[in-house]
Amino acid sequence: MNSSMAILLLLGAAAALSRGATINRAELRCRCINTESKPFSNKQIANIELIPHGPHCVKVEIIATLKSGTLICLDPEAKWVKRIIHSMLHRSSNPK
C-alpha cells in the first residue's frame, strides 16, 4: 500500500512538472511567424516594438501596432523598415 501511494505521488509530481515545462516552452519562441516586407505608409503606425534576438528567438523581431490596432510583424531586413526604425530612433534621441 505504501509503495502504490509513493508511485501515485511521483506520477502526480511528474505531471505537474510537465505542465510547467509546457508553459515555459510556449514563452520561449519567436512571436513572428511571417513578416511583412511590402512597404506602406509609416503614418499608419502607432507604435513599433523591437525585440532583440535571444534564447526565445534567433532573429530580431519588429512588431508594428497600426493605428487600427492591428499587429504586424515587419521584415527587419527590408530597407523601408530600417528607414522607419532609424527615423524613430533619431526622433526619440532629439526631442523637440
From TrEMBL:
GO terms for molecular function: chemokine activity. Transmembrane segments: none annotated. GO terms for biological process: defense response; immune response. Residues 27-88 form the Chemokine interleukin-8-like domain. PANTHER family: PLATELET BASIC PROTEIN, SMALL INDUCIBLE CYTOKINE A. Belongs to the intercrine alpha (chemokine CxC) family. This is C-X-C motif chemokine. It comes from Pleurodeles waltl.
